Structure formats: C-alpha cells, structure tokens
C-alpha cells in the first residue's frame, strides 16, 4: 500500500511538473486556427468585433456537453436583436470521431447560430493548452472511449482577448447577465465618441 | 422571472430534451429546493469547530496577502476549488451555491455587508492569478452588493500547509490502470468562518445549500449581538491539538445540528519529527529530561523503539501493539476506555496512563511499582490480560525471527542483539522523546506572554495554587512545571471501588450521546466481577498504603480523558467536582484532600486552566506517530497459527 501511494505521488509530481512547464510558457487565450463545421478554415481573428462564447466538448459526450450547449443556446436566443453581436463556438476535443460533418449536424440541433470547430490532434491540443482546458481520452471496457474534460465557458471580447471564464455550475441567468454586461461595455468602447 | 423565461425558451427551441443541472440525476440538494424546513434563526448553537488557519495566498491582482487579511473582519465562506473541475457535485456546486448567495446579497444588505465569499484554488500550477482574475470578471455586472473573491497560491509550498490545516485531501485522480485522468479527487467542504477566525460550520455536499448557509449566518449574527464576540483565547486553545481526536469524532452526535466531523484517514498523514532534537531541548516549561547513564538517547535507538511501540507482533497473537492502548491521537492513552482492554478482549483493571512526559516519571504504573521505563516495558508485554506473552524468551525469540529487525538492535546497541535489556532500552528511548509543553500556560508563566492565558484560565491558576490546593501535589516550580510530586496519595476513589460503594444504576453509553441508566444487578450478571485493587499496598504490603495511587502529571490533561486510576471520571469538570466534595471519605484519606467550597464560576475557571495545559507540539508528536511503520504479520514472519511461518499475507 505504501508503495502504491509512493507511485501515485510520483505520478502526481510528474503531472504537476508538466503542468508548470506549459502553464508558464504560454499566454492565456489568444488566436487559433481550426476547421469549421462547413469544412472551411477558421481563425478566431475572423470574429473580431463580436463577443465570442467559446466552449469545449465532444459530440459523444453523454451529459455535460448537451446540457451546457442547451444553456448556451438559450442564452443566445434570449439576446434577441443583440444575438448577431455574439458568436457561440463549440470546439471538439475528439478529432477521431467529430468530423466537420458530424459537428455540423450536432451543433445545429442546439442552435443555428452555433459554429462547431474541428482540427487535428495537434491543433486541438494547441487550442486546449492556450485556454487551459484539461482533457484526456478514457478507454472503456467495450473498446470504445470517452473523453474526460474540464468544463468552462470562455468569453472573448471584440478584440479577441479573453475577458472572463464562466465556471461550470453557474445558472444560465448568470451567463445572460454577464453577456449583456460585456455587450454594453463593448458598445461603449467600440463606438467612436 | 428569468428562470421562467429561459425555461420556456428552452422548450421552444431545443429539439433535445433539455436538462439543467438541477434535474440531472444524482445532483446535490444545493442545486434545487431545500428538502427540509430550516430551524428558526437563532434557535440553535454553532459552536466553534476549531480555528481557521492562516496562510500565504495571492489575490487576483497578483498581490501576496495572508488568508486572514482576505477574510478581514467579516464572516467568510471559504471553498477550495480548481478551475478545470467538472464534477457536478464538486467545485461547480460551491460556485452555484455561492452564486445563489451573491444573488441574495442584492436584496439583503446585512448579508452583503457581513459575509464575504472566498474561492481558493488548490491548483496553483494552472490557476494563476490571471485565471482567478478571469473568474472574478464574471461578477463585474452582478451589482456591487456582496464580495466574492477568487484567490490562489504561489506554489504547492504555500498551498500544502493551508490544505493540511483545513483537512483538504487533494489527489490527482487515476483510472483503474493508474493513469491520471482529468481532475483531482477531493471531498467538497465549505467552511463558515466567523470574524474571530473560528470555524462555525463545515458544509459537505449534502448540506451545501444557500438557504441553510444564510440561516446559519443570521443565527450567528443574532447571537453575536446577544452575547458579544466570543473569547479569542478560547478559540485558540484547540488549535495545537488538531490531530488529537478520534478520526470519527461523534461529539454532539445526539444534537440535531450535528454535522460530521469525521476526519479522512488521508488527512491524518504522518510526518516524521526530529524526536532526538525535541528530547534534547524539551519545550518551554519542562526541565532537561533525566536519561540513564547506560542508555543515552540516539537516533537509532529512538527509531527502533518507535518501530517496536507500533508493532502488533509484540503480543502473543500478533494483534496488539503498545500503541493500541497508548493511542497517539488519543493523548497517547485511550479516550474511549475507562480501563484498558488487552488481547482477546481481556479486561485490565486500570486506566492506560499517557506516555506524554513519561520521561520525567520516577515511579511507573499507577501503584508506582516500577522505577524506570526500561523495566516498565516488560509489564504490559508479559501481563496475561495485556499483550500476554508467556515469557521474556518468547518475545526475544520472536523478534529475532522477524526480518524487519535484522541488524537493527546490533546497529543501535553497538553490536548487542535483542535482549531483555536492549528491548527495554529501545522502547524507553522512544517514550522518553514524547515530551510536550509550551502550552498556553507555559507561554504565560515562563515565556512572558501576558496574553497567552485567558482571564478565566488565569483565575483558574490562582485557584490551582491557592484555594483549591491542587498544586500541593500537581507541582509548579519557578522555572518549570511537571504537575506531579512523583508520589502516591489516597483520594478515596480506590477505597470506594474496593468497598463496592457504587450507585444502583450505572450510565451506559449505547450510542454517541445516548446514555441509558442500567441497573447494577443487570451489569453484574453479564460483566466480569471487578478485580480487587488496593493500590500501593500491593507493592509495599504496608496497610497504610491501601488505595494510594500515583499523582499523574496534568500536562495535556485535556487530551487524556477519562481520568483517575480507574478512568471513573469522564470529564475535567467531574474531576473538579470530585475534589470539591473532598474526595471519598475513608480512614486513610490523604489529609490534603478536603471539601473546597468552590463556586460554579471557580469550577469553570479551574477547568479553563486545566485546558490551557495542552502542549504546543502535540500535533508534531502525533503526526510523527502516524508516520511510524506499523508492524503486522507479513510473509515469512513467524506465525502463531501455523507454528511455522506465514505463507500468504
């Protein structure tokens, strides 16, 4: 038992060392390149001027992703005429299964305005690193797999800078309030006065 | 209103059946409505559960601060989180509940004014101050009312002492193959802390609900105005002995307000201490320890003695170590047994004395029949109702056969192997290092810290050395205090026991806090007849020595209940009451014992003084004991079952 714990501690320290090395070396947030659900190249830059709601997950996700996407969609709908100033993005952490075509069908179930984004293993890993998303493939007994991942919603302002991280667990009302607040702030900042 | 609006929108636009966290199966009550009526505000008590430790943190602007500075002088809700947490009943639950409280603060100025919420990350590598700032940005638009701060630490070095102080066990989660998976495993606990930094409630998953928390806070606020702030010193008292309690602490279990205080085994992690260093310079309030010329302390001997002390194989049936009656976290005695119980449940006729400060004892055992720790060791080893070894040779041969001890005696004793003498010397060496002082009393009396002792305890001290006369036997010197005269006295407790003077009914604890009065006759039908015990007379055969027992030291006395040689008094208050009545009258009663005529307040003062005698290093010594190897039957060990050796563990 003592041995098992020692191994665990070693693993833990290895993981932490790894985490430190990349947490220090990379800036938080920023531009990234992926492929959108219509199979067109996508860069975050393109959305300059809009408030971006960025969410990570995968289409085989059994519970959390659908719940969160539905909440996200509800917020987008509740924005009415301001909805066009906001763009929801869903980045798939499962390059093996989530092709642009699969994502196309999936995200549009939730909201027509949502854009699904796919990429190679490396591309997705790069974006996840930038936004400090923790994810890991989890093999199942039956040969399939799931993907464990952290669940936060990232709010990116009209200049492409990360503006807030909404922790998982807060109710949709909160997200709506925050989005409205950010939109009002952006309107002040962006209008030449 | 929003909720209604959103729900209808969701139903209208989503083709998937929509579930919110509140409707997901197995979500905590905190996401939904409270499932029970709350007790009326102010109708219950929230006693201090200990002190909320300080630590060094970094706020979301990157400024180094102390945790207590963050708390400022407000009530605080403290949650431990990490930003990549996705367990719905973990960190997100605390965020959800905090959000609810933050919302309530908009409507409730008192709440917003008096309470502050703090989320502290336990993942400093990922949760940099910048991440914490992005978190707090959530509430830029939520109105000014109420503060919710997100803080982190500079590194594990700053974080670990905080986690330890709050009993937060955090581990990287691994799957069945030992590969790390996303996230940490931790048990969610949210702390409600008062402005004096006392923890007043700890919410686990099932109890974390904004309505309950607000109810608790309102209760505290109401009681604060009635009673004034609680005494700081009283709160600080329990701090040094954080580890000295049962892992499964059921105190107050019978109260409706009981919230589990059980300690995770992981939180009682061992940490080896420099025992030799401690023994060589005992804490404030103790003189240098007497060490026999032929058994000087060395690290090897202490280490070997510690190994033996925790080795269950030292008993006849390989089950019973010294530490099982002298339990480190129970004051190195047994808090749960009036009289000890040996192997196979055999009754022992006296209370286990504490090992703390046994280095100073010139008389050992309650009847003082032994003169040194080296020799005393053999008493329990050979007693048929304790460790039950049939002979000295049996014990020595068994140790020779156990691989764990190969070469250890030789290394510690200059080539000498295990013998009656070296075994005693080794165990005595470990016991000798368990010196404990630097209590609040010591800091006040010998350290010149006028504030170290509360006013109550100071009054208790005056009674202790004055009116109550305790110090006649529990002595205090000018430069140190052993709280014993190393002598024996008749208080009447033994006389009462011998004469069979017992109440017709005896209280029996059937569940924590639930006591039934049971007829003595019923107990006698099922119980072993109490063995005779005439105290010191058994050693001297002098009739005047009947029912005399040794004066125990009172250091750490708050940790060593129950009291008296037979454990017949459960609390310090009962002990004070006993002496106030003048003990039990008998022809040989010690003349120093007489009715004291103490008032209610005076009795409370005395108890407060006794509680101030808990040593400042007890956690160090207990954590060291947790780090000790526990000897148990393993492969290759001699086996009492098979007569040969154990084949499979």
Quick overview:
The complex is a heterodimer of chains A (193) and B (649). Chain A is an alpha+beta fold and 193 residues long.
Give a description of the structure.
Chain B: Residues 1-21 form the signal peptide. Chain B: Pathway: One-carbon metabolism; methylamine degradation. Chain B: Keywords: Copper, Disulfide bond, Electron transport, Heme, Iron, Metal-binding, Oxidoreductase, Periplasm, Signal, Transport. Chain B: Disulfide bonds join 85-91. Chain B: Belongs to the SCO1/2 family. The complex is a heterodimer of chains A (193) and B (649). Chain A is an alpha+beta fold. Chain A has a single domain, classed as Glutaredoxin, CATH 3.40.30. The longest helix of chain A is centred in the first third of the chain and has 24 residues, at 2-25. Chain A has a seven-stranded mixed β-sheet with strand order 2-1-5-4-3-8-9. In chain A, helix 3 (100-110) links the parallel strand 4 and strand 5. Helix content of chain A is 41%, strand content 24%. Chain A is built from five helices and nine strands; from the N terminus they run H-E-E-E-H-E-H-E-H-E-E-E-E-H. Mean pLDDT of chain A is 82; it is low at 12-25. Chain B has 23 helices and 13 strands. With 649 residues, chain B is an alpha+beta fold. In chain B, helix 10 packs across helix 15, helix 17 packs across helix 22 and helix 21 (572-580) crosses helix 22. Chain B has three domains: 25-266, Glutaredoxin (3-Layer(aba) Sandwich), CATH 3.40.30; 275-436, Cytochrome c-like domain (Cytochrome Bc1 Complex, Chain D, domain 2); 440-614, Cytochrome c-like domain (Cytochrome Bc1 Complex, Chain D, domain 2, Orthogonal Bundle).
